[in-house]
Amino acid sequence: MSSRPTIDDIPYELINEVLKLVILQHDASEVWSAFGESRTTLLLVSRRWNDIIIKTPAFWNVIRIDAYRLRSKSTEVDNEPHKQHVPKLDQIRAAAQRSGTLPRRLHLHSSNSDEERILQGIVNLIQSITNWTFMSLQTWDHRLVQQIFSIEEAPLQDWSALSELRIHKCWRPHDVDIEDPGSNGTNGTSISLYMSPERFPSLREVMISEWWLKICQLPWAQLTDLDLALIPGPFSDCLDVLEKSSSLERLKIRVNHHVVNSDPSKLRHITLHKLQDLELDLDRASDVIPSFLFHLTLPSLINLSLKEGVEVYHPHFLTRAALQLVQRSGAKLQYLDIRLMTDIDVEERDEIFIATLLKVTPSLRMVCLGAAHITGLFLTDMDDHCLPNLTHLYVNNHCRDRGINDAAAQTFVEWVERRVLDTGDLVQEVNHEEGKKVSPRKFYYCVFSTPLKDFPCALKAEVAKLQDEGCPVTLDNSLSI
């Protein structure tokens, strides 16, 4: 009788493919990933699996450091309450060395309650490792970031491959005087984050969330991707950074707090010749943001996204600023996403500005519009032939008035009918998965209302008829896309 097969009888090639799938399913961008636990489970399958995983560098090139887990669970009162952090950091260092020459990615989570000895141990560990290409630092403690990128000392290892840096939730502490005349920066400004182009020649992507830009000195001119979450303070700090960032291709600015400018009318004009993607995400109203758009020129702009949170209100200034930005830049937009406030009625002028923006931008391929109180005026004020390249149109209406919702939906359907059927603009392609013809275009109208309200029966019947004729139009009242 032959012995029963074991897991070690699986051919190496098959095991290797299984392990590759595990690695691919691992999301390296998540700080709280369960990949470490999954790796430990796989190590315990058998000695053979343990040996394969130990010798597979791709299982070890993502390094996670959670300062909270470095603390000792002992309640013993002594001078080293966190004395267990040293061997734990040594274990992380040994694991990182198994990644060999592969590019390494760092995910760090710390808090302002971590002891100085733990912070120093983390800094020493990070600086002892080479070949970092990605760093994500999530911490409330400025000391940690400041020590990792120390002005006085260069890293112990070569960090020239670092291409992406993400810093989350770092507030400037009250004990840092950014106007200290005896500081290391320029114009009497203390520098807490310093990265020179000589030490970091590959750095291209930076995300800085809630950090005073005035105390950052980075190689701005070489960056191609910049993501800024602004904190309370002057908007001029952001402008200073943008003026130095001449190579930017993608820019995202998030306004979560009140941002001010001493005199919005005196904002400096900025031209970013290479910028293709601009995203403004506004959770707090600020007059300086529309003024910023009035003073911005982006000749290479392709994708524009403007989003306002609840109770953010810029009375028609934001849409007018977007229109003038596109006209002034001569940009050939392909993607436009405008999400205005969802709880305050959008003014009629907003829809007029949006209609004008669509008419002067024939290059558009996808348009998304979400707002409260959409009447459909932007459709009636727009020529049926003004968007020859349009493939997708999404409209999300948050109006609670059923009469306005139904009228806007009717206007939407009539525009689609004229655009797709009357102009003969219905191109079909084969869906190879199902073997049937489908349209590459999509026209979608969604209404957000509580309680749920259905569309009029006559309108639904009209849409069903259009769909039978091959028109890709959809009405939805399911509260979400």
Given as residue ranges, the uncertain stretches (5+ residues, pLDDT < 50) are 74-79, 172-189
- Looking at the chains present, what oligomeric state does this protein adopt? single chain
First and last CA, distance? 60 Å
What percent of residues adopt helix (DSSP H or I)? 25-40%
Helix/strand-derived class? alpha/beta
Q: How many helix segments? A: 13
Beta-sheet strand percentage?
A: 15-25%
Shape: globular
The side-by-side strand order for the widest beta sheet comes to 1-2-3-4-6-8-10-13-15-16-17-18-21-22
What is the topology?
Elements: H1 12-25, H2 35-43, H3 47-54, E1 62-66, H4 85-97, E2 104-109, H5 116-127, E3 132-138, H6 142-148, E4 164-168, E5 193-194, E6 205-209, E7 216-217, E8 225-230, E9 233-234, H7 236-244, E10 250-255, E11 259-260, E12 270-271, E13 277-282, H8 288-294, E14 296-297, E15 303-308, H9 317-329, E16 335-339, H10 348-359, E17 366-371, H11 377-380, E18 392-397, H12 402-422, E19 429-431, E20 436-438, E21 442-447, H13 457-468, E22 473-476
Parallel strand pairs: 1-2, 2-3, 3-4, 4-6, 5-7, 6-8, 8-10, 9-11, 10-13, 12-14, 13-15, 15-16, 16-17, 17-18, 18-21, 21-22
Antiparallel strand pairs: 19-20
InterPro entries: LRR_dom_sf
Protein name: F-box domain-containing protein
Organism: Ephemerocybe angulata
